[in-house]
Specification:
Elements lengths: L1 H4 L3 H10 L18 H13 L8 E14 L18 E14 L5 E6 L4 H14 L7 H17 L8
Antiparallel strand pairs: 1-2, 2-3
């Protein structure tokens, strides 16, 4: 870049640092080909930003293969004139999986850790989640009222169902 512009290498470096540029780095991404992708994103984001009154909105995700790592040698402490020193390598001590649900309205996170990452562990997480969320609106009458409300709301702005 310096040769192409006639500027000094240090000037190019300062400009790149000032604007957080790193042209040697690249990332990849993939756009969805689903024609309803934008509508679906708006539905989900709209639910997060403006949840229905008295609704419990949870954002559930998982992080698998969280590694327990340890240095292969003990860390050597800092002494006058010498910085703390660590070995470059590490020892793997196993992995764990985190299942977590963020309660959108309050920011509360309900999570559980599991040594394995299968449907069985996810079901255990869902059972824990069910025990920890409020038990409001669980009567048949409340269920029927909610379904009637949903039907009325849907029919105010009906849309054809598109199978994907």
């Amino acid at each position: 870049m310096a040769a192409a512009t006639g500027m000094s290498q240090s000037a190019i470096s300062r400009i790149w640092r000032a604007f957080a540029l790193a042209p040697h780095r690249s990332q990849t991404f993939k756009l969805s080909t689903d024609p309803l992708f934008i509508d679906k994103v708006r539905d989900v984001v709209g639910l997060y930003l403006d949840p229905p009154e008295k609704a419990l909105v949870l954002c559930v995700d998982e992080k698998s293969q969280i590694q327990a790592l340890d240095r292969s040698q003990p860390v050597l402490p800092m002494v006058p004139g010498i910085p703390e020193r660590r070995s470059h390598d590490y020892v793997r001590a196993g992995t764990t999986t985190l299942f977590a649900a963020l309660e959108v309205a309050t920011g509360k996170v309900i999570g559980s850790l599991h040594r394995r990452h299968r449907a069985v562990e996810f079901k255990k997480f869902l059972t824990k989640l069910d025990k920890e969320v409020p038990a409001d609106h669980r009567s048949v009458q409340a269920l029927e009222r909610d379904i009637h409300d949903w039907l009325a709301d849907w029919n105010d702005n009906p849309r054809p169902f598109v199978w994907t």
